[in-house]
Design brief:
0% strand; Ferritin; globular; mainly alpha
Length: 155
Amino acid sequence: MGTDAYREGIVQAYQGELWGKAFFERLAAATDDAEQRGKWEVLAALEEATRNRIEPLIADAPDPPVANVYRSLESAVEFYEALPWHVAMERMMDILDPAIERFRELLGQAPAEERDAVQILVDHEVALKQFAARELAGDGNTSLEPVRAVIKRAQ
């Protein structure tokens, strides 16, 4: 992956964090279940903390990195809000591995001064997967611990 591909990957990751924050916020607003709402809100905070951590890496981006960031957001929210909780967690588990791999590739290309920020990018996806796995295992009381740990490190 060359420098241009790395930079494009970081911009896409930033856009993904914007999308993810909006996604989780809308899921929180759409649910009547207070416990689930609180969990969606913490996941939105994770997306925001990660976005804030990688934002300095895109300061030199030629175009504002928000174009098309909300594509298919409404349909994704409608899809997830209709799912039973455990099915939503299973779906999260299914989609996280490609993102983890993509971000690990970015980490391997990151300049030394950007490695800590890109590591947070990797770790936040891993934390989301750990959250979903704990939820599926019936460990809802501690499921947010990995997420909160990454939020703390990102700040």
